Amino acid sequence: MTAASAKAISGAAFATLLLIALMMGANHVAARIAFNHGADVATAVVFRSAVTALVIVAILAVQGVRVTFTARHKRMLPAIGLLIGVQSLCLYSAVARLPVALALLAFNTYPIWTALWAAIVYRQKPEKAMLVAMPVILVGLAIALDVFGAASGLGASGQWARIGAGVGFALAAGATFGLALVLTQHEAGDVDGRVRTATTMMMAGLMALATVALQGGFHLPNAPAGWGGLAALTFLYGTAFTIMFTVLPRLGVVGNSAIMNVEPVFALVLAWLVLGQSIAPVQVAGALLVVGAVMALGLRKR
């Protein structure tokens, strides 16, 4: 961590990071509304990715960013984009099946996956902080998901019958995102973040479009609320990324700040207010444990 990123951020930067986390959490709540009214996962990813890619490309054009790729970049950027495409499809699939906050919490295991992939692919030993945080994250996630079915009263088998598929998709999203982060760091870390995002969104959109074709076409919303959800998730996601790459650099903040990991907390509140989703107090405690551990990892000095 550089001296610039290690120092305390300004109030404006902190507020901007919280705004991005709020918008990303709201994006998933909006996605659930769209899914509840006829839209499917692939359709949502196509809309979201295409619009975000267009916005980032427009930013690149306006700012006059020169785009050049090495042979390595040409090999790895499509692979990273495909991984993010899988991650997007899996995460929205989890959101469609689980309470939004729980889907995001299971996805928030990605720091563990990142450490595992770094060890497997690049033989990097996990840091001591990660080894300490891993069990904390897993215990918190187990409590939040109510894996033994105590809070729900369903028992372990009943609870897993209800959440198993959603949890599987969320963990798959975390695993693919972790691998994408590792490959990005080692193979494409020298590519401009805006350029990486544009290529990633293009690949994710193309992958989702292929999925749409395989399933026989777009599954569009069948009610005004669904169209509102689809429009909202597209606007929120694209706007969050636009802020990330236009405002944050001027404030001297790294885009992937740990502060944005409060997204599941915002999603928990928004899902309760908008969707009527609620979880038991003990599950909330588990959620806060996961968020706290992930934020501690992100905020640690290196």
Automatic annotation (TrEMBL):
<dbReference type="InterPro" id="IPR037185">
    <property type="entry name" value="EmrE-like"/>
</dbReference>
<feature type="transmembrane region" description="Helical">
    <location>
        <begin position="281"/>
        <end position="299"/>
    </location>
</feature>
<keyword id="KW-0812">Transmembrane</keyword>
<protein>
    <submittedName>
        <fullName>DMT family transporter</fullName>
    </submittedName>
</protein>
<feature type="transmembrane region" description="Helical">
    <location>
        <begin position="163"/>
        <end position="183"/>
    </location>
</feature>
<keyword id="KW-0472">Membrane</keyword>
<feature type="transmembrane region" description="Helical">
    <location>
        <begin position="77"/>
        <end position="95"/>
    </location>
</feature>
<feature type="transmembrane region" description="Helical">
    <location>
        <begin position="129"/>
        <end position="151"/>
    </location>
</feature>
<feature type="transmembrane region" description="Helical">
    <location>
        <begin position="226"/>
        <end position="246"/>
    </location>
</feature>
<keyword id="KW-1133">Transmembrane helix</keyword>
<feature type="domain" description="EamA">
    <location>
        <begin position="16"/>
        <end position="144"/>
    </location>
</feature>
<feature type="domain" description="EamA">
    <location>
        <begin position="166"/>
        <end position="296"/>
    </location>
</feature>
<feature type="transmembrane region" description="Helical">
    <location>
        <begin position="258"/>
        <end position="275"/>
    </location>
</feature>
<dbReference type="InterPro" id="IPR000620">
    <property type="entry name" value="EamA_dom"/>
</dbReference>
<feature type="transmembrane region" description="Helical">
    <location>
        <begin position="101"/>
        <end position="122"/>
    </location>
</feature>
<dbReference type="GO" id="GO:0016020">
    <property type="term" value="C:membrane"/>
</dbReference>
<feature type="transmembrane region" description="Helical">
    <location>
        <begin position="195"/>
        <end position="214"/>
    </location>
</feature>
<feature type="transmembrane region" description="Helical">
    <location>
        <begin position="41"/>
        <end position="65"/>
    </location>
</feature>
<dbReference type="Pfam" id="PF00892">
    <property type="entry name" value="EamA"/>
</dbReference>
